[in-house]
Automatic annotation (TrEMBL):
One of its GO terms (molecular function) is methyltransferase activity. It holds the Pfam family Methyltransf_23. One of its GO terms (biological process) is methylation. CDD domains: AdoMet_MTases (cd02440). It comes from the Bacteria. This is Methyltransferase. Signal peptide: none annotated. The keyword Methyltransferase applies.
């Protein structure tokens, strides 16, 4: 988080030390540091986090400055602005933010998610799948937790992820026939080739799902399966950005989207993991692409 300026870094350190007792003074010190290095995105972001407790306008200004200093938005300043304004201006998360997040998280990912949070999306998805799986694509494969459930039933298992560090962790497990670095928000259409496509805990980082569902509908063979999880959203709208900086999706619009794209859908509401001791409820979705001849089988959602 260093600014590259020793004096600015020292003032930021003092600010962090003061924060528990005097947040106003801490904000002042961060502001002084940022006068020395106005292009310090991480400093602006941290100032925004501190101000968000009592000064929403000041927090928004700080996050705007962080975004201006880092237009790729590796820190997710645009998401913080969306949360402050209680509305999403984008339909997906910045790719650079997702990539940076998981590059940093990769080494401790399995232990943090499985051991500490009780993550079980791969097991819930696998319980609804019947082998053999044929040719399988694991979207957002991460370190290979879903791949572990798929390997025995797959003739070919391929994993795609935006994070190079996550892919390195996956490679050490020896589960996949091929691993590739891909941004799931920018997939190009391809010919039908897959019998099963999975996405465990992936769509929490994609808000609008029309594009990825359309892509999957084109990439699956007729009769192919699409198995994925989303966090469950009970309110208005197809999806919402939560304070956790993860998207949650509503069941009704999701079923309608999948039906429109040419899928038969089965869905269960299950606990996906824990967060701060509370269960995170989600939707475990098993969708089957309608075979040719059963209604209009051509995908109607563009990839």
């Amino acid at each position: 988080m260093s600014s590259g300026d020793l004096i600015a870094d020292r003032r930021a350190d003092y600010a962090e030390a003061l924060l528990p007792e005097d947040p106003v003074a801490a904000c002042d010190l961060y502001a002084q540091a940022l006068e020395l290095v106005p292009g310090w995105a991480a400093g602006w972001f941290r100032l925004g986090e501190i101000r968000a407790e009592a000064d929403l306008a000041g927090a928004a200004h700080a996050f705007e400055q962080a975004l201006a200093a880092d237009p790729d938005d590796r820190l997710g300043a645009s998401l913080q602005l969306d949360l402050l304004r209680n509305r999403s201006l984008a339909d997906t998360m910045p790719s650079a933010f997702v990539e940076t997040l998981f590059d940093q998280y990769a080494a401790d990912f399995d232990g943090a998610l499985v051991d500490k949070l009780g993550y079980r999306a791969p097991q819930l998805l696998a319980a609804g799948l019947v082998a053999p799986f044929g040719r399988v694509l694991d979207l957002g494969c991460g370190t290979g937790l879903m791949g572990r459930e798929l390997r025995a039933g797959a003739d070919w298992l391929e994993g795609w992820d935006i994070s190079a560090e996550m892919l390195r962790e996956a490679e050490t497990k020896g589960l996949y026939d091929r691993l590739d670095k891909r941004d799931l928000s920018e997939l190009a259409p391809e010919e039908e080739r897959w019998d099963l496509i999975t996405a465990a805990d992936v769509f929490a980082y994609l808000g609008a799902l029309e594009r990825i569902v359309g892509w999957v509908a084109q990439a699956l063979r007729p009769g192919g399966r699409f198995a994925f999880t989303v966090e469950a959203h009970e309110g208005l709208g197809a999806y919402v950005l939560r304070d956790s900086r993860r998207y949650a999706h509503a069941a009704g619009p999701l079923v309608a989207l999948l039906d429109y794209a040419g899928f038969e859908v089965r869905m269960e509401r299950r606990v996906l993991r824990q967060d701060r001791g509370a269960p995170i409820w989600g939707l475990v979705v098993q969708a089957v692409k309608r075979p040719a001849g059963r209604g209009d089988d051509s995908p109607r959602v563009k990839a």
